[in-house]
Automatic annotation (TrEMBL), chains A, B:
SMART domains: HOLI, ZnF_C4. It is found in: Nucleus. Gene3D superfamilies: Erythroid Transcription Factor GATA-1, subunit A (3.30.50.10), Retinoid X Receptor (1.10.565.10). This is Uncharacterized protein. Residues 168-438 form the NR LBD domain. It comes from the Eukaryota. It comes from Caenorhabditis angaria. GO terms for cellular component: nucleus. Residues 129-150 are annotated as: Disordered.
Amino acid sequence: MDSPYFSNNTMVYDWSMCSPETTTNTSSILNSAKECAVCGAPSNGYHFNAPSCSACAAFFRRTVTLNRNFQCAQQSICRVNYTMRVICRACRYHKCVQMGMDRSAVQPRRDCNAGRRKMLYHEIKHISSTTSTISNPSPPPPSQIPSYSSSISEEISPNLAIRNDCFEAEQLLDDLLREERLFNERRRMLYCAHSSISDLLTNDNLNDIPFTCSDLRPLTFSGIQKQIRPQILLIYEWLRGWRHFQMLDTSDRFIFLRRCVLYHTVLDPSYLTYRLGFPTKYVMFNAMYVGIDENDQTGWEDEDSCIKSELKKKLYRPLMERTINEIISAMRASNLSFVEFVFLKALVSFKASASSDISKSLKKFMHSHMDLMLKALSLHYQSLGLSKEETAQRTGNLVLMMSNVFAVGMECLESHQKIQFFDLWQLDDLLIKLINRSDR
Amino acid sequence: MDSPYFSNNTMVYDWSMCSPETTTNTSSILNSAKECAVCGAPSNGYHFNAPSCSACAAFFRRTVTLNRNFQCAQQSICRVNYTMRVICRACRYHKCVQMGMDRSAVQPRRDCNAGRRKMLYHEIKHISSTTSTISNPSPPPPSQIPSYSSSISEEISPNLAIRNDCFEAEQLLDDLLREERLFNERRRMLYCAHSSISDLLTNDNLNDIPFTCSDLRPLTFSGIQKQIRPQILLIYEWLRGWRHFQMLDTSDRFIFLRRCVLYHTVLDPSYLTYRLGFPTKYVMFNAMYVGIDENDQTGWEDEDSCIKSELKKKLYRPLMERTINEIISAMRASNLSFVEFVFLKALVSFKASASSDISKSLKKFMHSHMDLMLKALSLHYQSLGLSKEETAQRTGNLVLMMSNVFAVGMECLESHQKIQFFDLWQLDDLLIKLINRSDR
DNA sequence: CTCGGTCAACGGTCAC
DNA sequence: GTGACCGTTGACCGA
């Protein structure tokens, strides 16, 4: 009664189909089971918890058991369908995962001492692969590739499970770093005043902050006002870079976007200030800054037809000071690294969304996703050679920072709801829609 | 004999040879499978549906993938056997087909990263760089254009449609449509005033224009001035969506971006005006419009601290009128479809860049890329059921439109170079860098 | 019904 | 350009 179907429904369908129009129509569910979710070929049922054809199932099984890691030659945007499925294996694998295939559903290598012939086949394969690796001058990979020999299958299985998790975690870190770099590239193009275009277009730009000190300009509120819309777009692009975002329905996307706009607006300036401006300049998302010191009037002056100096200070100095005291100082104290910042941003974004009014199954998925994030962070620390104590301490710092970000973010939200309600100064109308409770 | 193999073989071969000869003696099938039907060499089974040796199979595969067409120096009566097989390729290929080899059994190009060495390399990299992707210099040479074997089509026979080309053409159309839709989604988020956020975030938005009439607002030059930078970013994102863009070096990227900014600035307003504003409103990229009629002053008024009405009209009315007369009217006359617009945009972008100062090999690649585009367009017309005459006529229209776009674009460029030189009004500094010859 | 194993037939590679 | 070589794929099977 429960076996595969029940688990299928809770794990996959509940959250991939939480949009009303799909759940109402049962035939679409039946149709989706008849068609491979990965390549669209006629499917004969479920494989590894996703409606898929046997070919994609075999592909997925091979990829997992051999612990392969593919790299897309393009930008991980290859179309995967019946005719194109063999073109890019990286994207085919990602689509398998996206469509709900579960790495843990791949069983450990079975004991195959069923017949002489099979053993013979394996021995031959084993010998030939061994000799080829020996003849190769490159470092030998035998520890990575599972042996074809069936005799040690029992010993492999626990390691294999760990490796699967590592694989996912590693992938996650790669995704997050890629998206942050893209975000920086876009910000450079939008806000940099002095860089040459060659600097913007180059491939080698691995900087973890988008600006340099020479890009910083005194803040004007009218400048912020005009550039908040592109900034929201960039946050949306960051969110879309997350592999599972496209599977969310509209209302869940809305929740995620709202949360990210709110908390990124706190986090990004914090990191920029920590890296570029502290202790004199508080740097905003668009490389504009205000003076931190009370006597420094930069950015706090009157702006005709926009906002008065007094109101600026009344509304935003407390927020700025709280951000400095509770977030930026913590970043400085722990000497926050780029990777840690990227994790902090992701954890804040997903934790905030998971605490919102989303479907139960999505909530469950989000929590396992955050577990994976912590796992990836731990692996990162491990690769840096940190001890367990240091790892625990830095992870704890990050989690403490998260709660500070939530607190400051809430104050920021309330403050802007007040601004909008009393019309203290003109906010962008898309921002208002994201601040308000209802969507209109 | 080997019972499992035998049953396997019969099952597989029955499926592939579902012909009336299945009643023939099984042994004769096995005998015939033992020797190559083409050259008589010992064969190891079926290839492309004919019992053949691996050499003849490889020969057939190369011939099909490279779409080669051989000519026999004799009278197409050459004997093809084990010793003579390399003498006449025309007769060898002919015999391949005669013996039942099926061109459609040759599959599309597979993942190029799948090679033995490269795979090993990736796996090693995978191990060593668990998390330190930052320090990874990412060895694969980006400036090198890979093999693109399909572009080496010297001896093309038009009646033998290349399967691979069809795949690539299909992929190309898909990419272009996807990028245009993404472009529209981004424009909606940047410029829409009245849509609800749910409308922006929904997946089902397949509209081919980003705005509705209710989004249109009277133009202000200061508004254009402020929003040109996000627009350049969107053009950059469009360009980056092109699969091969990341393989270009910085200077080539610069050339492409310059060309696209120029011609998209002509093309996008043209399409928007044709679809939304004509004959009263000329619609810009950000949903702002000016009046087309000389008596309609909308958008042409004085703007304090930016630009005077007189200068606006002097600088931009001629450009607008030329765009209407030469481009928009042509779009209207041919009732340009969304897909055609997408192709027009791509053709203009790539043709303009290919005519610039880029490396010879890139130029060659660009031309074959444009050929592929025309092929994809032709396939699209074919799928719509258009006759050859109609296809030729519409393709001709599109090519004529291209040259008009180039002409108007050149005038637009000169006009803005003049504006920048005499400082007639303040242009965005990134735009200036893209207009000027040198990069500084 | 969906696992894993199997192997003929694919594609890519690279000395020759 | 050729063909031996090897890795990958997917229809098929038993469990």
